[in-house]
Write a structure and sequence with these properties.
Largest sheet: 4 strands, antiparallel
Structural class: alpha+beta
Strand content: 25-35%
Number of strands: 8
Helix content: 25-40%
Radius of gyration: 37 Å
Strand order of the largest sheet: 1-2-3-4
Order of helices and strands: HEEEEEEEE
Distance between the termini: 104 Å
Shape: elongated
Number of helices: 1
Length: 217
Amino acid sequence: MRQWIAKEKESMVKYICADCNNNKISYIDSYAKEFTKNILKMIFFTWNRIIKIEVLEMRIKNIMISACFMFLLVFGLIGCSAKNTENNDDLTITPNMELIYEETISPNKEYAEKEEDIVNYTVEVYQDKDNVILVNSKSNSEFFKPLQYELELDTNITKEDIDIEWTTLMEKPTPTKEDQLGIAYVSISDNGELVSKRKISFVNCAIEIIEDTLDKK
């Protein structure tokens, strides 16, 4: 049997007997293999759980997005549950104001099975002798609360100075049964120059300023 030979700064075993290699060292090798196998199993198990968690989170997000889309879809299809009378109680219209423009559309007339289910969206533009413009939006939907805003101009305007562009909930000009009209872009010009453009959402019941060069009230 050869003796162990150790040099300075070296710890490598260069010689080993057959008995140690086949018995004692072999046991250490087997333990190391089993330990490595368990570590790999643990890594695989942890990685697998991480992937499952990510897939679950993705599914939850998809479900939430689908639920929001279905809510908007159903909300648009039923037209916010139309009723026979329009909501005008919250609108302020002074007696000396003149109606100079009115436009009404129905987002679900082609799809409603009953006449009482038909929803109407209306935008009205009034003007008084002091050149104050009042824009009203109303609907026969029981879920829509009338909205209005006021502008002060220097001169009188006519219906030719008013333009209303209707889009769907997905901001598209062409409606479908799944994506119906529900947004009105109201543009008002003075002497050919745009002075006010606002977005009226009949679904969210909100008014958003797109462009205004006047003092707003």
